[in-house]
Amino acid sequence: MNKITIVFLISLIFSSCKKEQMDDCFTSSGKEKTVQRLIPKFTAIELNDRIDLNYFYSSSYYVEVTAGDNLIDNVTTSVKGDLLTIKNENKCNWVRSFKKKLVVNIHAPTFTDFTYRGSGEVNFIDTLKSNVFRLNLWDASGDMYLLLNSNYIELKTHTGPGAIYSKGKCRELVAYLGGMGKLDAFSLQAEEVLAINKNTGSLSVQAERKLKAEILGPGDIIYLGNPEIELIKKASGKLIKK
To answer: Final residue of a domain: which of 95, 126, 157?
Structure first.
């Protein structure tokens, strides 16, 4: 590729930025700092972009954002209705070091829904206690480490290589692996489990009383316990007792 072509491509990239975004492309992250933001009550979270998230139990609702002081204002944590949406609205992030992470700590008593579209790492430092918990991964590429205590839990990865690792207990679990990643719920004690694997990754569960397993792809379903089993097998994957 000659120099003229390279200059043209660079010019094309920056010309596609709005004027107010141009400075962002040439701005360093700055010195790291943490700010606390009070937020209203929410019941659902949507996490986007390359942001690490940690959940802590608290009787009140607030977030702590850690980032470079030139970027932190554009790491948004907005609540509309019952939904807390977390985004990195800084532009030209590809020009900055991946070693400097953006981190959001969520402090809340509970919530019920989590949609993950990001590539950061998610950690539940404290156990999330709720009657219902539903998790959906869409084009996610990060890892999630969950501590849960709920009556009913849904863990679903639809697209992307994101992985879910879950510990805790529940009465009923729905575990769905449609993405290319991994769903490990060996340490999530469940009385009844519906496990569906449509892809190549492994899906692991613990079922005490009943397991309905649907194998719809080449990936395996691996289980702990001695449950009553109902198996629907339409592909090459296997049901394996650990």
So the answer is: 126
